[in-house]
Amino acid sequence: MSVRSNPLSACPHRALALQQYLILHSEHESLRLSLATYPIDTLTSYPATTYPPTPYSLATAAAYDADARKLHDVNQQIKSALTELLNCESVRGDRLYRAWVQRRLMEAERELKEGRRMSAGGGRRMEGWGEVRVEGARA
To answer: How many secondary structure helices (H) and strands (E) does the chain include?
Structure first.
């Protein structure tokens, strides 16, 4: 049986890595949707002397931060699963499939880079209504 007729036989980890990616992708989308539902006004960083934070806004900000950390972890796992796929001989030999995996890998790396940039800037990335805003970041 050739690699072309049964690509999974050439790399036994390919099916597992692909299954892992699909599960992680589903979790990724769920977390992104969850992050988009947080009310923006409760996540904005106000100076404490002007607007004292309420317990609700602190709890919401903490939950947002926890979900953002989970999303970062999922992106790291996605990157690992896709890298494992790229290391399969059957994927390297299939130009279209390799390009698909490489695109997904670049997307994961871009999100990881954006997450690091947001963390370094001290702001939160706010998503929703088709726009991306940064709250609390210093210019």
So the answer is: 6, 2
Q: Is 15 a domain residue?
A: yes
In a domain, 2, yes or no: no
State the CATH number of the domain containing residue 51. 1.20.58
Q: Write the CB contacts of 106 (distance below 8 Å, at least 6 apart in sequence).
A: none
Alpha carbon of residue 67 to chain centroid: 11
For 125, the enclosing helix (H) or strand (E) is strand 124-128
The domain of 47 spans 10-121
- The string of pLDDT tens digits covering residues 54-107 is 556 777 888 888 999 999 999 999 999 999 999 999 999 999 999 999 999 999
**133-135-137-139 Cα dihedral, nearest 10 degrees:** 60
